[in-house]
Structure formats: C-alpha cells, structure tokens
Amino acid sequence: MVSSDEPGASSMAVIRMFTLLRAAFVSAHQVQAMTLCIAHGCPFVATRARTRTHARQSMLLVPLLFAVSAPATTPAVNAPAAASRHAGICDASAGVALDARRFVVADDERNTLVIYRTGSPAAVERIDLSVFLGTRQDKESDIEGAAQVGQRIYWIASHGLNARGEFQERRHRFFATDVVPGNAASVQPAGRPYTQLLRDLQRAPSLAHLDLARAGGLAPEAPGGLNIEGLAAAPDGSLLIGFRNPLRQARALLVPLLNPDDLLQGRAARFGMAIELDLGGRGIRSIERVGARYLIVAGPTGDAGAFALFSWSGRATDRPVASTMSAFGDLRPEALFALKTSGELRALSDDGGRMIEGKRCKDLPSVRQEFRDTTVRP
Question: What is the number of other CB atoms lying within 10 angstroms of the CB of residue 303?
Fold first, then answer.
C-alpha cells in the first residue's frame, strides 16, 4: 500500500541516479517505468531486453531497485498482442470458438451471427436469427453473452431497457444454437427462444435482496440499472449469468442458472445464490471458463472507465485476482474465448463507438465496418 502521494528522499535519490545513468544503461521507456515504480512504491516489473548486451546492462539496475523497494517477486507484465481486424460488423459483443480456427460472433446491433477465421478479415458465413428470435430483420435483440456446453452454445441478450430507458420486448431473449461440425464448422438454432428470464430473476426468492425489479426499470447504464453482458459454463453444465449492471456495494454480480436446457422448452428458470465479486468497482463485460478457472473482463457500468482482466477460482468465497496483463488500451473487450486445440485466448472489441474518418463505426455502411481482435496472455 502506498502511504504517501509524494516520493521519499531515498526514492528521489534513486530517480536522480536513473536520470544520470539513462544514456548508458536503458531506454527512455524503461527509465520511465522504473522511476514510477520507485516513486510510488510499486514492485519492480521486468522488461524484455532487446539484445544480450541490453539484458546485461539492465540487470545491473536490479540490485539498486531491490535495495529501495520490497524484495517481492512479481510476474512480468503481459501486454496484449497487436490487434487484428475483422470486417462487416463493429459491435462484437459475444463469441465462441467452433474449432481451431473458426469462431462465431454476435453483434449487439443486429440479430445475425457471423463466422470468421483467425487471421482473415472477411466473414465466411452469416446466420440470420431474426425469424428464429421473432424479431424484424432490422431490429436487434442486443445479444451480449455466450457460453458453450458440449456442442451447444447458449446466448443471452441484455434484458435491459434501451439507451433511452424504453422497454423493448425483443431484448428479452435467451436461446441456443448447436454446433454443426465439419471442415467448415457452423451453427444452427436449437429449441425455442425463452423470453421470461427477467421475470424469473425478479421473482426468485433467493435473489430478492438484489432488487432486480427496481434495476429493470432504469436505463441500462444508469447507476443501479440492469444490463446483462456475461455468460459462462460451469463444470456441472449450469451457467453463470454476469451482470455489467447493477453492482451491489461496488461488487459485480454473478447469478447461477441451474437449468438452461429447460428454458429452451419454455420452462421457468431456476437459480442458485448470487455471487458478489470485487472487480474494483467494475461490472462483468465477459466471462469465460478456461481450464479450472474463470477469466473475467471487467469494465465500467457506463461508457467511461477502464477495462481490466481478472482470474477467479469459481468459488464464491475466493476473491478474483487482477491479471498482470497491461491495460487493453483503446480496445473495449466484450467477448473472450479460447480457441480449440491451441487454447489461445482471444478478446473481441466492441468498436461500435470507435471513430473512423470522423464517424462512429456503427454509423458507417456495413462494407466499411470492422472490429478488432487480440490475443490475451493473462
């Protein structure tokens, strides 16, 4: 914990020393990073040397750093890889890997699932769900989360009001698609869309303390409003519903959905006890089970604020751990998934509000729309 906003005398001495040694030892970027660490009491963070000579020179500074700061060992910060781009949509809001190279993406501005290949900007297939979901082709259901159990992918809409605080029935959808395997893996609708999930959430005795009836009457990004954005598979086949909003005492909410397949037959949802997670005052923008843990992309409940990546054990009593990965920059990650076989983690950015040639991406013709995709190394 930092006890003061001002660096101490010993810290200032080291900072001056770094300035004198800068030309001989390290780059300006490294000096800046190490200076901030000493000034504010953070542990030393290793950087990758670009040459063996550079590495030997950088190592001479390590004892100096440890003489001033606590001798704690921290993993190296992992910066996200350079983003690639995929054409045709802007608002990538949920995604699932279909095989080692293909993945399917939902766009919260339309009811069409789009399939891409890694490393290729163009879409390879589009699946129009408007008839299946019972909506007009030009009206979106605000699909925000996805989770795969076996060959079935569950999808969830925001279940909130629109940005103007108006109720729109088409935003109340929980549905599924089944993977069609093969050399060109695809998906097809399964069961029937369920439209009463919010009613079930608001009526569940175990969730009464969350006051979701009040939250459902507020705009989704208003303080205390209701906005679902995350969905993850649990080991037993149940799902975890992640809320971007509301927070409860600055903690993000997860609600276990115990019987997802029943909903596809029109039967009411059953829930477990809500789980509250400390994500630094952020809500859940995406959640994915990877191996024995969950990775959570946390972000602001509104438009302004920083995103962060957390790892969580899945036990309600355990606190999520912030990843050592550096900030996402100007990416707005709302979909996180692991590719089959390689296990490589991909984060998709919702770029609908990104300015391109003076216009928001979502306001451009579809042939000029794009979203960004990056590898995540937690």
Answer: 9
349-375 average pLDDT score: 92
Shared-domain flag, residues 43 and 180: no
What does the pLDDT average to over 347-365? 92
Reference 308, options 77, 17, 96, 46; nearest CA is: 77
Question: Between 141 and 66, whose confidence is greater?
Answer: 141
Token output for 283: 């809500």
The pTM (predicted TM-score) of the whole model is 0.79
Say yes or no: 98 and 136 in one domain: yes
- Exposure letters 85-121 (e unless 16+ CB within 10 A, then b): ebbbbbbbbbbbbbbebbbbbbbbbbbbbbbbbbeee
CA distance 253 to 305: 18
C-alpha span between 281 and 298 (Å, rounded): 9
Higher pLDDT, 12 or 222: 222
The answer to whether the CB of 264 falls within 8 A of the CB of 284 is no
322 in the same domain as 181: yes
Adjacency order of strands within the sheet including 283-290: 283-290, 293-299, 308-312, 321-322
Residue 105's SS3 state is strand
Q: Which two tokens stand for residue 163?
A: 């940005």
**Model confidence pLDDT, tens digit, residues 212-228:** 999 999 999 999 999 99
pLDDT computed for residue 327 by the predictor: 66
Given its phi and psi angles, is residue 233 left (phi above 0), alpha (psi -120 to 50 degrees) or beta?
Answer: beta
- Dihedral sign for Cα atoms in the order 218, 220, 225, 231: positive
Among 94, 86, 96, smallest CA distance to 110 is for 94
Range of the domain at 28: 9-68
178 forms beta bridges with 152, 188
- Total domains in the fold of the chain: 2
Residues 186 and 251 in one domain: yes
